[in-house]
């Protein structure tokens, strides 16, 4: 009996079977391994492994390495994963466009949110999602948490239909709808030398000799660091990383006041001169200007705007200079 093997993928030869293999590969890459993707795909590990091997044969590339050292994408696998995300986002957008032509809402909607927004009392994302669900029950929502730059990039290239980010600089290719605000205060841990410092004696110039923990990408946090001449001695890539650095007692850093509240209540950190050492962020929903968003995306954007109303509290927050 002759066993058939997958043919190499040539120009213009992308089939439905290839799309299915790419979806399996995306799940494996996102979950961090084949065994970890079993529940996501509802497949046995052996079947997943065979699908990934078939895709590698089709592409003529080694996409991942698996063994005692664990699972890891090869450089080629990283590239194929990024292209897969773009391709599948485009197919989802195509399906949404066809649904629009039929005046129905279905398929999947990928939405990305900046981290640590759920505890913000000014953020009414849960209410907006409930309103959206009531009107678009057939749409499968995929909610991602990502960095500011990853969300912007994902919305621009179609990976995410909508993103929610703290504004820092506007792009002409994106639409911005302001939703809610956030207060950022400067914190130190209980073991830090400034823990017992008199707040009345602290101001921005006094902080320049202190080791500062900040976010490692362009953001309002980074803008304040540069504007105030602070020295970033440690870098975090989300708010939890910055909080951990502050709790070490070796660094000071900015955190959202709502997120830091439990640490403050437990006596693990405190805000330094909160009346002065602060800044404010405005969070906006971002969508692409072109092509026009699907009906589902436009509905979600409308639900978000309706749930939040106009921002009125930012006037009391000191803007970075």
How would you describe this structure to a colleague?
The chain is α/β, with parallel strands linked by helices. Helix 1 (16-31) packs across helix 3, helix 1 packs across helix 4 (75-101) and helix 5 (125-135) crosses helix 10 (295-308). It has helices at 16-31, 38-41, 45-59, 75-101, 125-135, 148-156, 220-228, 239-247, 257-265, 295-308, and strands at 64-65, 72-73, 108-113, 140-145, 162-166, 174-189, 211-215, 231-236, 252-256, 269-271, 278-288. Helix 5 (125-135) links the parallel strand 3 and strand 4. The longest helix has 27 residues, at 75-101. Strands 3, 4, 5, 6, 9, 10 and 11 form a seven-stranded mixed beta sheet that branches. A two-stranded antiparallel ribbon has the order 1-2. The protein is globular and about 70 Å long. It has ten helices and eleven strands.
Could you report the average pLDDT, rounded to the nearest whole number? 87
Helix percent reads 25-40%
What is the CA-CA span between the terminal residues?
75 Å
The proportion of residues in beta strands is: 15-25%
Which radius of gyration do the C-alpha atoms yield? 23 Å
Q: Kindly state the number of beta strands.
A: 11
Count every helix, treating DSSP H or I runs of 4 or more residues as helices. 10
What is the makeup of the main sheet? Answer: 7 strands, mixed
Q: Please state the overall shape, judged from the principal axes of the Cα atoms.
A: globular
Uncertain stretches of 5 or more adjacent residues: 313-321
N-to-C series of helices and strands: HHHEEHEHEHEEEHEHEHEEH
Q: SS-based structural class? A: alpha/beta
